[in-house]
Design a protein that fits this description.
The complex is a heterodimer of chains A (about 200) and B (about 650).
Chain A lengths: L8 E8 L4 H14 L4 E5 L9 E8 L13 E6 L2 H11 E10 L6 H4 L8 H10 L3 E5 L1 H8 L5 H11 L7 H10 L6 H15 L1
Parallel strand pairs in A: 1-4, 4-5, 5-6
Antiparallel strand pairs in A: 1-3, 2-3
Helix pairs in contact in A: 1-7, 2-4, 5-6, 5-8, 6-8, 7-8
Chain B lengths: L3 H5 L7 E5 H11 L4 E4 L6 H14 L2 E4 L3 H13 L4 E6 L2 H12 L8 E7 L13 H7 L3 E2 L4 H18 L3 E6 H4 L1 E6 L29 H20 L6 E3 L6 E6 L1 H12 L6 E6 L7 H10 L2 E5 L5 H13 L4 E3 L14 H11 L8 H10 L15 H16 L5 E3 L45 H11 L7 E6 H17 L4 E7 L28 H7 L4 E5 L4 H13 L3 E7 L3 H6 L8 E3 L9 H5 L4 E4 L2 E4 L19 E3 L2
Classes of the chains: A alpha/beta (about 200), B alpha/beta (about 650).
Bound molecules: iron/sulfur cluster (2 copies).
The site of one iron/sulfur cluster has 11 residues of chain B, from helix 20.
């Protein structure tokens, strides 16, 4: 994996409602602003209840106006759930882009009642590679459990994202923003989660 | 954690923070010194009042969740009549509730600045329609401001109060989902503190100003309203958000309103047309800055109009072009250059632009083919209720009861709230069209296929009466609603049912919160928007006062009792109300009031019958021929133990 920072970043954070993708995207957005950049975070779906597909479009850089990333315009898709990673990669991942995904699946009800099939991780990898993308998969859910709180999975993934070296934001700022934007009682677990994610990728 | 409530009231001009469009609108109102803010929750607009409710106790103004949008509008208008600055916010459909007062309040207008902030929802992400509320401003002859991003949302809302006072008219700020729910860097302005003592003056500048029938009556007041338009039109020529960029020798023009301008700018960049385009960015889709539009129309041969929603700008530009430059070619939604439905985006605008300048967009054809191939791997994800949601219990009980005593083809009429997912269906399933002349019953694989009809707030309890009055006899007639919806829109329909002797089951799923829009309190919660304790209203008490004779209350976590109550109600020869009350599980978990049980799944006892799967809880999974509980998703509510016929799901003793 090439470790290059881009001055303009188009990142999608995808997941299932309740996994914390929106919070993760706000953390990246706040960190970018703290480092003096312009940021846009566009959420594509998210009602209060859990279980729906959610994706946030994070855009950092100068010439940015629209809240949504154009088709084939995302350098990175960060997926808190593999199927949601695939869903967004097909539409938005740029050629040569990176799909960084959690391996833990959240089964759609369509699959549970037997009306659809869940693609295997191999199939997802194969598909994205065919599109000229790179896939890195980590078991972020287990790492979050290891960090002491399964709900820190989104922060494990943020740590992993930082570990790619592709973010135009310093790791220090990002960690600081994590600290300031998670419930006080979970700060330690979240920082552990960040480190665990960071280390698996580095 | 930096407290957001402190941040949003910080008087720190120049400070840059990441704000959601809705929060930016709220900040604009805070900076303008809003005195009364009202709303009824509705996605995508809810966070406007949520933010204002956080600020209200700190700055000493009034913020409330009203019982519905109409009341919210009237409360805010009442404040504006006394000279206090007021804001009311709502989602697109909320404005429909308001139209009666809206169309009449403008006959005479306001004294204090009155801002109507509406969140439209092109693409119907969270709504039952895609309506474009800018037309209401056109219809009501008031100005509409339309921001292009969160920064403008803040600035425009602040300015809207000033504009409103200058014109003595309400001003509509129209946002859309992609601004309401998009975040961007927003720079704070100064917080004004207009000391406004509420005053009342019956004949302030106009006779009988606040009484539309007071002489000289409505027509003269309409004339006054109409007379304001030249002044509005003059003002919009110079406001900073209407801006014409005309440099060099442009080969074509773009007129883009609100968010459309943001997409259009990126599309221009994508195609490298920066030096070839004349760009008119609009912040007031109605009324238009006619002189700016005229200058644009006279300097190019063709113009693309870019806007979210219906062709409001385009229609007006067409009218102007007739006088100003009949030869100009106008492209937009009316000509098929832009899609007539759904939302727009950078790609859609780029596509239209490429056509206009006869250019091919760079496309990677082989990659597009691979995408088509891959698409069938992308399994749909139908939206579901939360694990352990009380509505799962209600829907299960309703299904069992209808199976037993619901007749051949029962009709279940839905409503708006989390339980509306009872009608979202299963995306991964094929639904065949029917051309039968008889009533048809369809199998139900999950609670998400329960609702037969669903339109709007309070719609179901009215529809069910129509089915009864039409003489429908093929099955039971049911309506469902939630607590917040009951207070918002169902009470007149309940009275109507009693008065006109309609019969059927009205199931009220009371979870004590307005959950779907992000857990706002309502009269069934016992607290106000600003977290003060208040009187708790009971659906049963209201129903009783409306004359309903059959009322039963159950706990939907108790599937047996709930099923029995629904059966009894279905059998009764009355308009029967069953209140299924259990606090929203998600909210209870957040407030740390939910105690989950330790669940045991016995794989040996599971026969793979999938009955538990049809219960629809996302915590129940099915793999390799057997069911199971997802240890992360299941929260131990215990409801599914009653569902499994073999006792494979148990609560640990
Ligand atoms: S938010 Fe509450 S009411 Fe809505 S689906 Fe979740 S548990 Fe049910
Ligand atoms: S106990 Fe059963 S119904 Fe309750 S959350 Fe767990 S799986 Fe869902």
């Amino acid at each position: 994996m090439k470790k290059e920072k881009t001055p303009e970043l188009n990142l999608i954070i995808a997941g299932v409602g309740g996994q914390g993708s929106i919070r993760a995207s706000h953390i990246v957005g706040i960190a970018a602003i703290q480092e003096g950049m312009r940021a846009r975070v566009g959420e594509t779906f998210g009602a209060a209840m859990r279980g729906g597909a959610v994706a946030s479009h994070v855009r950092i850089g100068k010439g940015i106006f629209a809240p949504l990333i154009a088709k084939d315009g995302a350098e990175i898709v960060l997926a808190l759930e593999p199927l949601e990673g695939l869903r967004n990669a097909v539409k938005f991942l740029a050629k040569g882009g990176l799909l960084l995904t959690n391996t833990h699946a959240w089964m759609p009800v369509d699959v549970n009642i037997g009306r659809a099939e869940y693609p295997t991780l191999e199939a997802i990898k194969g598909a994205v590679e065919k599109l000229g993308g790179e896939v890195v998969a980590i078991d972020a859910t287990s790492l979050a459990q290891q960090a002491g709180n399964v709900r820190t999975m989104n922060v494990v993934m943020l740590g992993a994202l930082a570990g790619t070296g592709k973010l135009p934001i310093s790791v220090k700022t990002l960690k600081e923003v994590v600290r300031e934007n998670v419930p006080p009682k979970t700060i330690e677990a979240n920082l552990r989660a960040f480190e665990l994610g960071f280390k698996t990728i580095q | 954690m930096t407290e957001f409530a402190d941040l949003i009231v910080e008087d720190a001009p120049g400070k840059r923070v990441l704000l959601m469009g809705n929060e930016a609108i709220a900040r604009g109102a805070i900076e303008a010194g809003v005195g009364v803010a009202t709303s009824y929750p509705g996605t995508p607009a809810s966070e406007i009042l949520e933010t204002l409710a956080l600020a209200a106790p700190k700055l000493g103004f009034h913020a409330e969740w009203s019982v519905n949008e109409k009341v919210a509008f009237e409360v805010a208008a009442g404040a504006a009549i006394t000279g206090v600055r007021a804001l009311t916010s709502m989602k697109n459909a909320g404005l429909n509730w308001v139209m009666d007062m809206f169309m009449t309040l403008v006959y005479g207008g306001v004294r204090g600045g009155f801002v109507i902030a509406v969140g439209d929802d092109p693409d119907a992400h969270y709504s039952s329609n895609e309506q474009d509320t800018r037309f209401a401003a056109f219809y009501g002859e008031i100005p509409c401001l339309e921001p292009a991003d969160p920064q403008e949302a803040r600035e425009m809302t602040r300015y809207a109060f000033e504009l409103s006072e200058r014109l003595e008219l309400p001003v509509l700020v129209r946002s859309v989902t992609r601004i309401c729910h998009a975040s961007g860097d927003v720079e704070f302005g100064k917080i004004e503190k207009p000391e406004r003592k509420p005053v009342f003056d019956r004949h302030w500048k106009l006779p009988w100003r606040w009484n539309v029938y007071g002489p000289p009556g409505p027509v003269e007041k309409h004339r006054w309203l109409h007379g304001q338009m030249p002044q509005i039109k003059k003002l919009v020529e110079t406001i900073p958000w209407n801006k014409l960029e005309l440099r060099g020798k442009p080969i074509f023009g773009i007129i883009a309103s609100g968010l459309g301008a943001s997409y259009a700018r990126e599309a221009v960049k994508m195609l490298g047309l920066e030096n070839k385009v004349a760009f008119l960015k609009l912040g007031t889709p109605t009324p238009l800055p006619e002189q700016l539009v005229g200058r644009m129309l006279k300097s190019v041969k063709s113009v693309l109009v870019v806007e979210e929603g219906e062709p409001l700008v385009e229609l007006q530009v067409r009218g102007l072009a007739k006088d100003m430059n009949p030869d100009v070619k106008l492209l937009g939604k009316l000509t098929g250059s832009m899609p007539p439905v759904g939302e727009i985006n950078t790609n859609i605008v780029a596509h239209a632009l490429a056509k206009l300048v006869k250019r091919k967009l760079p496309a990677d054809q082989p990659r597009e083919l691979i995408k088509d191939e891959i698409k069938n791997l992308v399994t749909p994800r139908s939206s579901t209720l939360c694990a352990g949601c009380p509505h799962l219990g209600s829907y299960w009980a309703l299904k069992l009861a209808l199976r037993k005593v619901g007749g051949k083809v029962p009709i279940v009429n839905g409503d708006i709230g989390c339980y509306e997912q009872g009608g979202y269906g299963i995306v991964g399933k094929e639904y065949k069209l029917s051309f039968s002349t008889e009533s048809v019953r369809y199998p139900i694989d999950s609670p998400y296929e329960t609702l037969d009809t669903n339109y709007i707030m309070g719609g179901g309890v009215g529809l069910m009466q129509g089915q009864f009055q039409a003489g429908y006899k093929d099955g039971a007639i049911v309506g469902v609603a939630g607590d917040s919806t009951f207070f918002h829109a169902c009470i007149p329909a309940v009275i109507n049912a009693v008065y006109n002797k309609a019969k059927g089951l009205f199931l009220v799923m009371d979870n004590e919160w307005t959950a779907m829009t992000g857990h706002q309190p309502n009269p069934a919660t016992g607290i106000t928007a600003t977290k003060e304790e208040t009187k708790l209203l009971c659906v049963e008490d209201v129903a009783k006062a409306c004359g309903v004779e059959f009322i039963q209350t159950v706990d939907p976590f108790d599937l047996k009792t709930t099923t029995a109550a629904i059966e009894e109600a279905l059998k009764s020869d009355k308009f029967a109300i069953v209140v299924a009350r259990h606090v929203c599980t998600l909210q209870a978990q957040r407030q740390k009031k939910f105690v989950g049980k330790r669940m045991i799944f016995d794989r040996d006892k599971c026969t793979g019958c999938k009955i538990c799967v049809t219960f629809g809880c996302p915590g129940i999974i099915f793999k390799e021929g057997k069911a199971g509980l997802d240890p992360i998703l299941c929260n131990g509510c215990g409801m599914c133990t009653e569902v499994c016929p073999t006792g494979a799901i148990r609560v640990e003793e």
